[in-house]
Each structure stands twice: as structure tokens, then as C-alpha cells.
């Protein structure tokens, strides 16, 4: 029904906020840890949460949240018959994790996760930017500056808590994607010096050099980011401005940084043909997609 579709649009905000609450409460971790064959009731899940003793409605409220997550295929649900005082006939819902939950678990083993990235994108800081999206059209300014009076990376330098979550989100999500890249992409085998432009704290190069120890990694980023960069064997952290100069190497690695330039200088992050035009206009002779890592394309620009 069209009216039902319209009502679902009105309540669109509910899904990300409910998922955010479930992640912050550790509900997804609890269900995933229980295993594929374990089905947990809202009451059993609520017992594991630090709820106030006076909040007797916690299981009921949690059940409503979990039902919404089922409708988005985050969780699965079934109804079972229960027995109370020797009498049957009552029913209750029990829940289990769907496969997608594995991408939203706490990164306890260093394999990467989308958890911190999801929480970052739904902080009040970034949600406030969305409320100013119309200013992009009306005034031609970016929504973040309109909301906060400064650019994103300026804000990161002024808010330590947000900066911590930002760098954690970048590191954990990059780890997840890069581990997959290293499974399917063989282009690093013939590289001796690899430069990661805007490589943050060096997570990417650390993964690359751990698989290809013959590679010397050069991690370029601004000084304030490199302050907390850990040591990785074979990786040199270089403080600098990628808009001014990039260290020389056999290959330059770029991931999630083209948005730091204007469209005129980098092309929109959209279609392959636009990337191909960017490559050819910049003096490269060939651009090709080598393989996919999840939904991400590994592309090579050749001179």
C-alpha cells in the first residue's frame, strides 16, 4: 500500500537509532556470541545488561527494538510456546543473529569491523551535519561547516573524544577491507616502495608489509595524525601535506581520500568512466579495475 510506504518513510530515522542503541548496549555481540543455534529471549538478553532494577519494562522495550532489527534482516526471530506454572499456551519471541552481524561486532581479534564507523556516522556531531544538508544547495557550502562553523578535519583537531572515535573507525573499517584486498589482489608482489597518501596511523601499510615484508612502506599524513601512529615493521611515517608534495615510490596507494579535493581536481567518486577520465586527464595511459574486495573496487592507474 502506498500509505504504508509513506508511513515507513516518516519513521525512517527509527532504524539507525535502534541499531545504534543495540550496538551500544552490546546486544548484537551477545546474540552473536551465543552461536548460530542459540535463540535468546528479550528477558534473557536484558539480564545481561546493566539495567536499573526499577526498569521492569526493559525486556518489553527491548523486544520492540529487536523486532525492528528483524524487519531489516539484522536479526532473525521465531515464536516459541512457553510453560508457566505447568500450563502451556503462552508464546514468546526469541532472537538470533543474522550473518550480517559479523560486520558489526567489537574488533577484539584485529580482523576489523564496521562497528566504530557506524557509531561515528551516527554521533550528534555528524547527524547535525545532515540537518544542514539544504545549505549545500542554497549556499554552496559543505554541510559540516554550516553546522559547526569549521571544516571536518579542523573539528577533529578540536574534539579529542570525536577524534578518537574517528581514527578508530577509520582503522577498524580499513582493516576489514584491506584484509579482503590482500586475499584477492596480487598487485603488491612486484612493489618495493609503497606510499600510502593520507594513510592516517599506518594501519594499511602495516597489513601490507606483514604479508609482503620486502616492501618498504611510506605512510604520509599530517603531523597531528602521526602523533599517535604506532610502529609497524617496514613502515616509515612521514609528516607532510599531500596537497604540496608526495614522497616517491614504486606505487602510490590511495583509499578514501579523493573527497579531500574538489571535483575539478579529482572527479566525482562515482563511476568507472569518471575515474578513467580522471586518470587519462592526469597523464596516465590506462585505468582498470583489477578485483573487488566486498563492495570496493581495487583500481590501478598505469603510466
UniProtKB/TrEMBL annotation:
Superkingdom as given in the UniProt entry: Eukaryota
GO MF terms held by the record: O-methyltransferase activity; protein dimerization activity
Swiss-Prot/TrEMBL GO biological process terms: methylation
Keyword list, A-Z: Methyltransferase, S-adenosyl-L-methionine, Transferase
Enzyme active site: 259
SUPFAM superfamilies in the cross-refs: S-adenosyl-L-methionine-dependent methyltransferases, Winged helix' DNA-binding domain
Domain O-methyltransferase C-terminal residues, every copy: 130-267
Entry-linked Pfam families: Dimerisation (PF08100), Methyltransf_2 (PF00891)
Domain O-methyltransferase dimerisation: 10-107
Record-linked PANTHER family: O-METHYLTRANSFERASE
Protein name: O-methyltransferase domain-containing protein
Organism: Arabis alpina (Alpine rock-cress)
Amino acid at each position: 500500500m502506498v500509505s504504508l510506504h509513506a508511513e515507513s518513510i516518516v519513521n525512517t530515522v527509527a532504524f539507525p537509532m535502534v541499531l545504534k542503541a543495540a550496538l551500544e548496549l552490546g546486544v548484537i555481540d551477545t546474540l552473536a556470541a551465543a552461536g548460530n543455534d542459540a535463540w535468546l529471549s528479550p528477558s534473557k538478553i536484558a539480564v545481561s545488561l546493566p539495567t536499573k532494577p526499577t526498569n521492569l519494562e526493559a525486556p518489553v522495550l527491548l523486544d520492540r527494538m529487536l523486532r525492528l532489527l528483524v524487519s531489516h534482516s539484522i536479526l532473525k526471530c521465531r515464536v516459541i510456546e512457553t510453560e508457566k506454572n505447568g500450563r502451556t499456551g503462552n508464546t514468546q519471541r526469541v532472537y538470533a543473529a543474522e550473518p550480517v552481524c559479523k560486520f558489526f561486532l567489537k574488533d577484539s581479534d584485529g580482523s576489523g569491523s564496521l562497528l566504530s564507523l557506524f557509531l561515528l556516522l551516527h554521533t550528534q556531531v555528524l547527524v547535525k551535519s545532515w540537518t544542514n544538508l539544504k545549505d549545500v544547495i542554497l549556499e554552496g557550502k559543505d554541510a559540516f561547516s554550516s553546522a559547526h562553523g569549521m571544516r571536518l578535519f579542523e573539528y577533529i583537531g578540536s574534539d579529542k573524544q570525536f577524534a578518537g572515535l574517528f581514527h578508530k573507525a577509520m582503522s577498524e573499517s580499513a582493516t576489514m577491507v584491506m584484509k579482503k584486498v590482500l586475499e584477492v589482489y596480487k598487485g603488491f608482489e612486484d612493489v618495493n616502495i609503497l606510499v600510502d597518501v593520507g594513510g592516517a596511523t599506518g594501519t594499511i601499510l602495516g597489513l601490507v608489509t606483514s604479508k609482503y615484508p620486502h616492501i618498504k612502506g611510506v605512510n604520509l599524513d599530517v603531523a597531528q595524525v602521526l602523533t599517535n601512529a604506532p610502529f609497524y615493521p617496514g613502515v616509515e611515517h612521514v609528516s607532510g601535506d599531500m596537497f604540496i608534495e608526495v614522497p616517491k615510490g614504486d606505487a602510490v596507494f590511495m583509499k578514501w581520500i579523493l573527497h579531500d579535493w574538489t571535483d575539478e581536481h579529482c572527479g566525482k567518486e562515482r563511476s568507472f568512466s569518471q575515474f578513467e577520465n580522471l586518470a587519462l586527464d592526469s597523464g596516465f595511459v590506462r585505468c582498470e579495475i583489477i578485483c573487488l574486495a566486498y563492495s570496493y573496487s581495487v583500481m590501478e592507474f598505469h603510466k
